[in-house]
Design brief:
This protein has 246 residues and is an alpha/beta fold. The chain has ten helices and eight strands. It has helices at 19-36, 45-52, 57-68, 74-95, 102-112, 125-134, 163-172, 186-194, 209-221, 234-245; strands at 6-9, 16-17, 97-98, 116-121, 146-148, 179-183, 198-202, 226-228. The longest helix is centred in the middle third of the chain and has 22 residues, at 74-95. It starts with 5 loop residues before the first strand and ends with a helix.
């Protein structure tokens, strides 16, 4: 019998409605990179969001290099990553909003003291901290239980690599089987599943019923045990996962 004792929340579009804001800033910088490489293609924020949701900017640029056959030096990559981080943080500090209903659930979880709470994100640590601070969520998470695939690891990576989830479990001192991750993307779901962690999917961040239905199938196909369309369903769906784990 395995008892669930730890909840691991993705940040972007799971806790905070940040992906659309962030990808608008990312698109401007991605297009600068393509221009400098004499590549005529251009991206809008929504196009980047569709192609690279769940990845951090480092992973996105690495994917662009593979797609278009160009190479940046390590120094160039690090420079772009830092520029993107600063631009996105500036936008989030002004405009970020919590996902609908999540703060109410965090308040109940914190009051219950039944589970440990942590954030596990692909995004840079400064960006995650700025996001959850803006939407008044920072009080729910211990400062040393906020993890970033871009910042917290010896070698930066991005989801779907399970490294950041495995690192989080090690630091917190939990077996992955004791944990439940909440994820809105395929890459995030795969990251947690590959680490041996139960996954609750969340698709309330997607605007249309068709997008929600499509993402529900994608998340389920990639290992999410249940998928919620709104945060009010969380207690019910967590109970289902706990029953399956027992």
């Amino acid at each position: 019998m395995t008892k669930i004792t730890q909840l691991l929340f993705d940040c972007d579009n799971t806790l905070v409605l940040s992906e659309e804001l962030a990808f608008e800033a990312c698109a401007e910088l991605a297009n600068q990179i393509l221009t400098k490489q004499n590549i005529p293609d251009r991206y809008t924020g929504p196009q980047l969001l569709t192609d690279f949701v769940g990845q951090n900017f480092r992973g996105m640029v690495i994917s662009l290099q593979k797609k278009y056959g160009f190479t940046l030096t390590d120094e160039e990559l690090e420079s772009y990553v830092k520029q993107e981080e600063n631009q996105v943080i500036a936008v989030l500090e002004k405009k970020a909003q919590p996902c609908v209903g999540v703060n109410e659930q965090l308040e109940k979880l914190a009051a219950s003291k039944k589970y440990g709470l942590a954030v596990v994100s692909s995004s840079a640590l400064r960006r995650v901290q700025a996001s959850i601070k803006k939407v008044d969520q920072v009080k729910y998470f211990p400062a040393d239980h906020i993890f970033s695939a871009a910042t917290s690891l010896p070698v930066p990576t991005t989801k779907p690599d399970p490294a950041i989830y495995l690192h989080a479990c090690q630091v917190i001192g939990k077996d992955p089987k004791e944990c439940v991750a909440i994820e809105d993307s395929k890459s995030g779901t795969l990251s947690a599943v590959r680490a041996g962690i139960h996954v609750i999917g969340y698709v309330g961040c997607y605007e249309t019923h068709k997008q929600q239905a499509d993402m529900t199938k994608i998340l389920t196909d990639n290992g999410a045990e249940v998928v919620m369309t709104e945060w009010s369903q969380f207690p019910e769906y967590l109970a289902k996962v706990e029953k399956n784990a027992a």
